[in-house]
Amino acid sequence: MREALAGLILATFPFIVSTFAQERPPEPDGYRMEDYRAPVPATLAGVRVLTTAEAEAIWRAKAGAFIDVMPRVPKPQNLPEGTIWRDQPRVNIPGSVWLPDTGYGKLAAATEAYLRRGLVRATAGNNAALVVVYCLADCWMSWNAAKRILTWLFQRGVVSGRDRRLGAGRSGAGRVATGAANARGDRIAALATIRSPAESFVRGQTAAGRSSSAPRRRT
């Protein structure tokens, strides 16, 4: 499994629109641990910026694997007795692999393993695949997931510290931020943004059952 991740080309893709005009926070040293629906940093160390049109082109050309890390809607605690709760369907970019609850700051071992398996599944074992990770507007889930995956790549020796500093940039509404080069010269994308799920190429609906193997987050 870890070997399958060694040559991965990564991109993340959080939807961002509503608060871009606000001041962006600096990058934290670690992961975001709370208040996940809040303005995200304009950068993730080692990234450069692409346009949304370029991200859409990747999707239309089927040149990347899109991973949705939007968490599940939790079951309300105060439902009347006898109420049947059904997971809400997830509307996302068609062809995406939904890996819910994998963008929290701290992951259980089972959830982290689920994310690793999901990466391999999304890329069909293609170590040179481009992976695009996304969430919602001002959502730290995709930022956390990108940082975690990049950490795995660094641990595998795929990306050097020098490479990570290349192409540092900023992101904006309707833009996609991508990363530096790995040791083989491939492009590693680290962070991406798009204006909203209403973009022209977000027309699909993914049922919750597609991610039935996901470990449930305890509340």
From TrEMBL:
Residue spans of biased composition, Low complexity class: 207-219
Chain residue ranges for the region called Disordered: 200-219
InterPro entries assigned: PQQ_CXXCW (IPR022376), Rhodanese-like_dom_sf (IPR036873)
Protein name, as recorded: Rhodanese domain-containing protein
Organism of provenance: Bradyrhizobium retamae
